User: What shape does this take?
Amino acid sequence: MSTHTLAVLAENKPGVLSHIAGLFSRRAFNISSLAVGPTQDERVSRFTIVVDGASTPVDQVCKQLEKLVRVLKVVELSEGGAVERELALIKVRVDPAVRGQLLEVAGVFGASVVDMSPTTLVLEAVSSPAKLDALLAMLDSYGTCELVRTGRIALARGAGVITDDGPASTAFPEPAETAA
Amino acid sequence: MQELTGAQALVRSLEQQGVEVVFGLPGGTILPTYDPLLSSSLRHVLVRHEQGAGHAAEGYAWATGRPGVCMATSGPGATNLVTALSDAYMDSVPMVAITGQVGTSLIGSDAFQEADITGITLPITKHSELVTDVARIPAAIAEAFHVATTGRPGPVLIDVPKDVQQATGPWSWPPVMDLPGYQVPGPPSPTAIRAAAALLVRARRPVLYVGGGVIKSDSHADLLRLAELCQAPVTTTLMARGAFPDAHPLALGMPGMHGTYPAVAALQEADLVVALGARFDDRVTGRLADFAPRATIVHADIDPAEVGKNRAADVAIIGDLRLTMAALADAVAAALPDGAALPDGAALPGGAAGRRATAGTADWLAVLASWKRQFPLRYTQDSDGPLKPQYVTERLSALTGGEAIIVAGVGQHQMHAAQHYSFTRPRSWINSGGAGTMGFAVPAAMGAQVGRPGELVVAIDGDGCFQMTAQELATCAIEKIPIKVLIFNNGFLGMVRQWQELFYDERYSSVELGTAIPDYVKLAEAYGCVGLRCERPDEVDTVLDKALARTDVPVVVDFRTHDREGVFPMVPAGRANDEIVLGPEFSADEQRAATRREMEI
Assistant: This one.
């Protein structure tokens, strides 16, 4: 599955989420993951939207998103060029006899224990989506009884900064000059 | 600073925007605004159904190029606008809809006549806003008009709760617009223009595929210049009828499902298709994979999302189409070997001679001319046989010199009108293209006539369509809006009947309306209009003369047309345009010749 991660800056106004979600629904685009929150500028929200490139024309998604009046900027983050994170809280049923073993697994994945009962543990894991998937696969053998997972958030690596000004992100390549 | 109520600010904002007419119908939550409306400079046309207000605003916008405005109350008033908003969205019609909403404290409580109209219309408006602060009204209205009329035009809905209309707030004009995310495409890239011009000059089988954008951007003059400079044939889509004169030698007529054979076949054989403000709609392309298979594609549009959406573009020109067309014509003139010597594109003759020096398209135009001769739009009107809709349209075209403003609904009558009326100028053809809204014609004609009061506005309507919005005849009669409505009354939902004939083994399911009920002449008279009837070919001119002569009252003519008449040519839905069916007026040999399409270029 070829996933594409979009960083979308939008005005922090009522109805913006439904405009964006409505666009995906109306145009039959599939959202794999969506996360939204405020930015350092209180007037601006940042959406991180993951779409599956196989089922959804990503170029169209970007162009249609940019047409929304409340959307300020759409940038596709290049694969590997961005730090991507998801947060999961996982309640695992665990026999005291294997608790130590489970804590070791958690430690390997950098997950921390945030709650404990005689029969369960709650783990908090923040990591890249792939690593998180690997942890969840490991935990399955112990008995995951409740899982809550956020949408992905992502930030481009390096010194470059996505701001809400400047040119639109979807530009057409200039055609090559041809002799008449 | 002056203080006004929200209602006063709303009305004054409309005045400041230069609005001259509002189509609407009052109700509970919009009552505060109807009070200052009474003493404003705005004309309010009281419709009989809010859908009529919406389509009238559209017709006004189509006919004038200025945004149409409609107004309704909350709940059912607002939901009755939904069809018109959807229609305007599909056809990029600039329109501002203003709806009342229940008081802010009641929103979400299932209050009387409450509907989440911004939510309902979200996918069918260019933008919408629920205004919750009285101080924002001037800016919200100014932004609505800006968004509706710039870039790719479209409908904008402004929903104003009753208490916001009643509250008092500061008034100032012009307000500061707050649209940081809204960008209007500007001039096209010169590189793209040069690339397109180079292709046009070299092409041996070019076609200019002209869409509604050319009319909306008022770039028909540059279209004529470009076509004549390149000696390139022009096909005008259903949205673009009138953008190029049908009588011009380079005109091919309409492309698509019911397009002319020369237009459809030219696109299939073209080596270069230059799409100008068109969007490769499925009704034009037929099966997309088989559309214009040999063509390099130049696609010019103001909406970047349309370019590459359906068909990949080899050269994309994004920007204001008016600037694009002017730049493209200039670039072609400069690129032509003898271009510098041409003082004015219009000085070139319409035929192939003007371009002969630069070679190129003469052979292509000769092929197209032979297709026009062999495979014209054909129908048979027996002098004593049943009345044919094509004949009525052609007589109307002749009697009006192609100068009337024609408004159509959706169905067979619409296609016959688009095919057989010979258009001479832009903004003289108004119809529901993308949405295909039956019932569009009468209210849209009303809006068009209000926008262009001195002109002849003729609605060509089907009997099925007519009955969906006929109540606006009352509005027309009372407001002295003298539209002419020609009903092609074949007693059927004709286009549906045609599909059942062709694709459902002639099993006619729920398509017969009957010709006699209602009695359209009596109905017209009941609405205070003149009612006429025409049943025979030899009466057509007399009846049309009589109808067109009345400029004081609306006129309805009940043309009893042949119920078996189909619309041809036809490309069956989902099929390739190469499978175009000429129809029963052509012999099997002719159909074979059309399919084989022998040509040597």
